[in-house]
Design goal:
The chain is α/β, with parallel strands linked by helices. It is built from eight helices and eight strands. The protein has a six-stranded parallel β-sheet. A two-stranded antiparallel sheet has the order 6-7. β6 and β7 form a beta hairpin. The two termini are about 25 Å apart.
Length: about 230
């Protein structure tokens, strides 16, 4: 949320928590303020959505940074977001890395550990949101952070539990019925069917819908209805 897409308030009634852009891939202080105000209005928990400093590619291009720079990158965004939240007398609830930063943390234990340490050192009470079954969750748990294993309503899965790269056909789920079917399977059965047809185990503690998705509002509404029946 807070990425300038223009649909944030339409989505808010159907979600429990929001990952808010911290200005490095999208947004700025003003959009953070506007989004947090909407979260207050609709009773939605606020979280920081730090990314690589890469507005040109919307934070979706991998960057190879030294670990100290990566630590500082995350910390700086948490400081920015926390200051904005404090102006509303609010405290952030969680942290979810964005885009390429999220994907690297999922597959690289060292990077996952650096990000987790940055979050813990900033505020050890924060929840780290990461790809279910990935290094992001394992490393955060290893240093004592609370975690939320995330699954995706609008993305397909590979056999190793990773998300299908956006560059590949079928990476994005655009049919509402398919998204609902995947979400219900992950919640009720604890597994997901991959692009190859394999069924793999998965832990679903929080469900992601991308606010910049073509059908984000419709997905949010339909999935909320299906999950809360």
């Amino acid at each position: 949320m807070g990425e300038g897409i223009g649909n944030d308030e339409l989505i808010m009634p159907f979600i429990n928590s929001a990952n808010i852009a911290c200005g490095y891939h999208a947004g700025d202080v003003t959009t953070m303020q506007e989004t947090i105000a909407l979260c207050l209005k609709y009773g939605v928990a606020i979280g920081a959505h730090p990314s690589f400093y890469d507005r040109d590619n919307f934070g979706r291009q991998e960057m190879n940074l030294p670990v100290d720079e990566l630590y500082d990158l995350v910390t700086q965004q948490l400081i920015i977001f926390s200051e904005v939240a404090s102006s509303f007398d609010l405290k952030m609830n969680h942290v979810k890395p964005h885009g390429a930063l999220y994907n690297i943390a999922a597959k690289d234990a060292l990077i996952a550990n650096v990000i987790a340490k940055a979050v813990r050192d900033f505020d050890s009470s924060l929840i780290l949101v990461g790809l279910s079954g990935s290094h992001a969750i394992e490393q955060a748990k290893a240093i004592g952070l609370k975690t939320a294993s995330e699954v995706f309503a609008d993305r397909s899965y590979q056999d190793d539990g990773s998300l299908t790269p956006r560059s590949q056909l079928g990476a994005i789920i655009e049919n509402i019925e398919d998204a609902i079917r995947q979400v219900i399977q992950m919640i009720n059965e604890g597994n997901v069917t991959t692009v190859s047809g394999k069924v793999i185990p998965i832990t679903a503690e929080t469900i992601c819908i991308h606010g910049d998705g073509k059908h984000a509002v419709e997905f949010a509404k339909a999935i909320s209805k299906a999950v809360n029946r």
